[in-house]
Here is the input.
Amino acid sequence: MKETQEKIFERDDKNYLPVFSRYKIVPDHGEGAYLYDINGKKYIDFLAGIAVNVLGHNYPALVDAISKQAAKVIHVSNLYYTEPQANAAEKLVKLSGLDRAFFANSGAEANEGAIKVARKFCHQTDREKSLIITARHSFHGRTLATLNLCRKVSTTLTTTISKSLKAR
Here is the structure.
């Protein structure tokens, strides 16, 4: 017998550190753009894993590609050279017209990279024009730089954290 969603909420609330608010839904499986909860209720998955799962759930070509890769190597650090990374970087450079590709392991790390590139560019052209503007109620990750861009986080908190970090 499956565990009820109430029991899952209870166990999760007891053991998981809440760092953001969540929806009272326990997804069980997905099909295309739809998610189904443990009670069988169907939802359109507008979040798509916060834009990570844009191809949908149980997409045959993706399931096949992931299965084949998992049978070889699931993950290695980018401290190593890999053929798939070389292929992906080459394709991104050709499609984007840029000189190089940057791979990140999270949205926060990608945002950190974008912040650094933007600041470097602005500092080389005009230091006075290096302000980074974000939207109200936006979320950009949980790193110190990205937290400073989030409009929901207290400015006092992020300023205090930033000032408390000093290279020694």
About this structure: The radius of gyration is 21 Å. The chain has two domains: 5-74, 107-164.
